[in-house]
Amino acid sequence: ATVYIEKYWNDIKKQTFLFSETYEKPLQPGTFNTNQLIYKSTQKFRSDSAGKYFEYRLVVKSNGTGKEFNSKRIKLIKDIVPSNPGGALCSNAIGASCFFNSDFVSILSSSTARTKVLITAPTNSAICGFRMLLHYHTLYADNSTAKKFVTLDQGQQKLDIVSGGQSTMDFGFAGQQFHRDVYALIPGETNFLERDLDSMQFVFTFAGEELKFYQEINGTSGSFGQEKPIYTNMEGDAIGLFSSRAKATVTRRFWDFNGGPGQTKVFTYNSTADFMYNDIACRLRFRAPNWATLPNC
Questions:
Q1: Angle 1-3-55 (CA atoms, 0-180°, nearest 5)?
Q2: Kind of pairing between the strands at 114-115 and 173-174
Q3: Residue 164: what pLDDT?
Q4: Among 20, 106, 159, 252, fewest CB within 10 Å belongs to which?
């Protein structure tokens, strides 16, 4: 197939992006078919300028039959600045309450109070997902070590797009449940001495309105003897989905020795200590790097 994307402004085609087959590592399991052939463009999609939102159309041409299939036009999710993804998810409307505006996040296992994860979704995003990756090291009895991580998936929320504006999202969670989830996710092991915390990644994923429609329509119950409808934004005889996705990842190490022993960029000191002392986490044998032994466990 010959695959390309057309860029439009006020119904005038401004640019064409040509795609070619690639045999790179396939997509991760999820919405899309990981065994499908992938087409990739080496041309960069530039950010929309202020107040100007381009539209894009996918065109797929069969080299065997010469028949063309094209999608309806869509708007791409606004770019997230790679160098400062957290700042891109904060806005004046949220102010100091934005999740990334604080160096220290308090997650106390002794309290059911919710940790507020408040962000601003990028323009043109209709689905927002959030997950946390807790990275740690395991020390075994033979003095070998292994780097490991667990993923705490906080699910996704759907947004209502209002004239290209932004929406505020809150993925708040309870501290007690956070610790229970960590304990449940870390597998049982034998012959290990202890574990130490390395870093936490906060990963936000965004998808366009087309994927939202697809999920809503294909998630219907199919009652009244009716088959589920198929949502597609391809025109003519084609069935498919043309949309955009974006991801923002912010990584913070647990321990910052520049700030002195016991300082962390993920939790406050008291909540980190609480993380290691509570009945759940103690059984995981987490320790701080400046502690020779695991205290109070």
A1: 155
A2: antiparallel
A3: 45
A4: 20
Angstrom distance (rounded) from CA 201 to CA 134: 7
Amino acid (1-letter code) at residue 247: K
What is the pLDDT of the chain when averaged over all its residues? Answer: 79
| Type of residue found at 81 | V
pTM: 0.82
Q: Which residues pair with 251 in a beta bridge?
A: 201
How far is 138 from 276, CA to CA, in rounded Å?
A: 15
pLDDT at 266: 57
Q: Are 2 and 20 in contact, with CB atoms under 8 Å apart?
A: no
Q: Which two tokens stand for residue 209?
A: 């309105």
Structure-token match 């991801």, residue found = 247
Largest CA distance in the chain: 73
149: left (phi over 0), alpha (psi -120 to 50) or beta: beta
Predicted local distance difference test score (pLDDT) of residue 69: 94
Choose among 214, 205, 227, 228: nearest CA to 71: 214
Separation CA 217–CA 220 (nearest Å): 6
Nearest Cα to Cα of residue 135 among 85, 176, 195, 205: 195
Each residue of 198-248: pLDDT tens digit?
888 889 999 998 888 888 887 755 455 556 667 889 998 888 889 998 899
